[in-house]
């Protein structure tokens, strides 16, 4: 019993210490913003790594998610004679929820894990210590551009996911199942509110970009510098990011659409 | 060189204590690293030789004691002052620690681009000079993954001297090298030290190679200095431990067998 309490206390203290180190690292990353502004090419390279290289997986996933929404939405709505509202259903689901959430999960799996592995391996191969010995701050030089690369890319990828998803829903609903094209686009245009739906979706994806990039870089920077340590850190990035995104989605949804 | 007077040692370590968990790595070590010479720090694996370099360069903080480099207490410096001091130090890591996404040329140019405002043509000339000094001017366009271990270390050496530092710290420079690469590195370390009037600290357990170039040797083990002096002075030291280490004898004060129960008891139950 005493041992159980001791273990509980130890893991509690460890979690608290990790949280503290995570916040100190985040402060260091954010303080690197002025030096990043002076070298925008570092940010562009990371937007390419995190954003552009994720475009294919985001586009294909968005298309299929939109097509499934079109199919399922049609079967449900047509039972109530409301198949003409398919466009609204597809777009609202994508813009409010699926766009930001699925994009964040995919980016965590594709780019977040890559960031953790890259930073972890840089630590294992002494590249981070090498930078420190060259009087170059590795947090500002390596982590800050990657963090802001993730932060900028996430809302753009989520917007792309939602836009392609709406096209997928249109293809299935209008193209294959015979929903009226004018109704699909007209109702979508009339019922989707820019502030309530689009802006809130963008805010969500910015928050998710912040959290996923932070978790990925923290795990890489704190990884035990061995192959096993880096592999564990990569796994932790995907698991922690997924849980954080889903948990935060609930909180944000409650705050945004709760009234 | 600034700060301390010419005759004073470049690195002065006093009462250095450092422990990792319950394990004491250094239990009150004093050392003086003279200017313009090659000082070797030798000792068995796991005695904290690399840790000592990290303490000297301010990457780790000691539990007690002071480390002064050129008259400045490394662990009392602000972040900015420590980084300014590091621009005057070079360090050669065991793995080379080259940035894997940059070519050989860009790796050597990196500290110049970070810390100077030199024109591109001047950077090119300086990088080619440094690469010429380590014999790899022709490898400028290769990526680190295309280099052998010895070549990577030479590129890292060119990068370490790019800003013409006052001191270079070498972490196990000879480990895992073939005889030719080892010979090249031994010659380079000596030549660079003498030609650029550097101070070099070489951490190693390769006795022959290190003793051949070191002006002064510190032997450390069990958290303390076991012997110090020139290679001849250390070799002539009467200590059994020093003799075993310097001549690579398999048994002696450091036993061949890891502590274990008696043989008879283990086998016969």
Describe the structure concisely for a colleague:
Chain A has 259 residues and is mainly α. In chain A, 88% of the residues lie in helices and 0% in strands. Chain A has 10 helices and no strands.
Task: List strands and helices in order, with pairings.
The complex is a heterodimer of chains A (259) and B (269).
Chain A: H1 2-31, H2 33-38, H3 40-51, H4 55-79, H5 86-124, H6 127-133, H7 138-176, H8 181-191, H9 194-222, H10 227-257
Chain B: E1 11-20, E2 23-33, E3 38-42, H1 49-56, E4 64-69, E5 72-73, H2 79-86, E6 89-92, H3 104-115, H4 120-133, H5 149-160, E7 167-171, H6 179-195, E8 199-204, H7 207-213, E9 216-221, E10 224-229, H8 231-235, H9 240-247, H10 263-268
Parallel strand pairs in B: 3-8, 3-9, 6-7, 7-8
Antiparallel strand pairs in B: 1-2, 1-4, 4-5, 9-10
Helix pairs in contact in B: 3-4, 3-5, 4-5, 6-7
Question: What would you say this structure looks like, in words?
Answer:
The complex is a heterodimer of chains A (259) and B (269). Chain A is an all-alpha fold and 259 residues long. Chain A has helices spanning 2-31, 33-38, 40-51, 55-79, 86-124, 127-133, 138-176, 181-191, 194-222, 227-257. Chain A is built from ten helices and no strands. The longest helix of chain A has 39 residues, at 86-124. In chain B, helix 6 links the parallel strand 7 (167-171) and strand 8. Residues 1-5 of chain B have low confidence and may be disordered. The chains are: A mainly alpha (259), B alpha/beta (269). At the A-B interface, helix 6 of A face helix 2, strand 6 and helix 3 of B.
- From the N-terminal CA to the C-terminal CA of chain B, the straight-line distance is 67 Å
| Low-pLDDT ranges of chain B | 1-5
Please estimate the helix content of chain B: 25-40%
How many β-strand stretches of chain A?
0
Arithmetic mean pLDDT of chain A = 93
**What class, by secondary structure content of chain A?**
mainly alpha
Low-pLDDT residue spans of chain A: none
Radius of gyration of chain A, Cα only, in angstroms?
A: 21 Å
Strands in their spatial order, largest beta sheet of chain B: 6-7-8-3-9-10
Question: What is the overall shape of chain B?
Answer: globular
Q: Could you report the average pLDDT of chain B, rounded to the nearest whole number?
A: 87
List how many beta strands of chain B DSSP finds.
10
Helix proportion of chain A: over 70%
Largest sheet of chain A: none
Number of helices of chain A: 10
- Helices and strands of chain B, in order, run as EEEHEEHEHHHEHEHEEHHH
Largest interface, with Cβ-Cβ < 8 Å? A-B, 12 and 22 residues
**Which outline of chain A best applies?**
elongated
Distance between the termini of chain A: 46 Å
Q: How many H/I helical runs of chain B? A: 10
């Amino acid at each position: 019993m005493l041992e159980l309490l001791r273990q509980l206390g130890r893991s509690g203290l460890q979690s608290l210490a990790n949280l503290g180190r995570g916040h100190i690292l985040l402060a260091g990353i954010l303080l690197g913003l002025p030096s990043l502004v002076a070298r925008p090419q570092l940010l562009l390279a990371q937007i390419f790594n995190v954003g552009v290289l994720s475009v294919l997986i985001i586009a294909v996933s968005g298309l299929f998610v939109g097509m499934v929404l079109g199919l399922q939405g049609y079967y449900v709505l047509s039972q109530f004679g409301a198949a003409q509202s398919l466009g609204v259903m597809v777009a609202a689901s994508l813009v409010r929820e699926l766009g930001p959430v699925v994009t964040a999960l995919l980016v965590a799996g594709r780019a977040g894990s890559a960031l953790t592995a890259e930073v972890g391996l840089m630590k294992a191969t002494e590249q981070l210590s090498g930078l420190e010995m060259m009087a170059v701050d590795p947090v500002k030089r390596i982590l800050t551009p990657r963090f802001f690369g993730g932060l900028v890319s996430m809302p753009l990828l989520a917007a792309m996911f939602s836009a392609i998803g709406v096209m997928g829903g249109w293809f299935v609903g209008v193209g294959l199942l015979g929903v009226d094209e004018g109704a699909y686009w007209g109702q979508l245009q009339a019922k989707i509110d820019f502030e309530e739906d689009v802006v809130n979706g963008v805010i969500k994806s910015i928050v998710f970009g912040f959290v996923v990039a932070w978790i990925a870089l923290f795990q890489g920077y704190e990884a035990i510098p061995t192959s096993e340590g880096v592999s564990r850190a990569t796994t932790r990035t995907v698991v922690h990011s997924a849980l954080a995104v889903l948990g935060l989605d609930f909180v944000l949804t409650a705050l945004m659409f709760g009234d | 060189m600034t700060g301390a007077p010419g005759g004073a040692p470049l690195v002065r370590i006093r009462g250095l204590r450092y422990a990792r968990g319950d394990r004491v790595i250094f239990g009150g070590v004093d050392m003086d690293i003279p200017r313009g010479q090659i000082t070797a720090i030798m000792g068995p694996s796991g005695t904290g030789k690399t840790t000592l370099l990290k303490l000297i360069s301010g990457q780790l903080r000691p539990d007690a004691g002071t480390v002064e480099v050129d008259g400045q207490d490394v662990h009392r410096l602000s972040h900015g002052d420590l980084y300014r001091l590091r621009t005057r130090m070079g360090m050669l890591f065991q793995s080379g620690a080259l940035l894997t996404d940059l070519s050989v040329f860009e790796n050597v140019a990196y500290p110049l681009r970070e810390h100077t405002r030199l024109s591109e043509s001047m950077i090119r000339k300086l990088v080619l000079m440094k690469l010429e000094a380590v014999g790899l001017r022709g490898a400028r366009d290769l990526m680190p993954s295309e280099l052998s271990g010895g070549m990577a270390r030479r590129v890292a050496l060119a990068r370490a001297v790019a800003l013409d530092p006052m001191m270079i710290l070498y972490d196990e420079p000879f480990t895992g090298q073939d005889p030719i690469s080892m010979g090249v590195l031994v010659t380079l370390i000596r030549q660079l030290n003498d030609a650029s009037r550097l101070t070099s600290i070489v951490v190693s357990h390769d006795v022959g190679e290190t003793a051949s170039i070191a002006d002064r040797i510190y032997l450390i083990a069990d958290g303390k200095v076991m012997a110090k002096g020139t290679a001849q002075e250390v070799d002539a030291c009467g200590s059994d431990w020093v003799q075993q280490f310097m001549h690579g004898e398999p048994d002696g004060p450091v036993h061949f067998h890891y502590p274990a129960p008696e043989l008879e008891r283990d086998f016969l139950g």
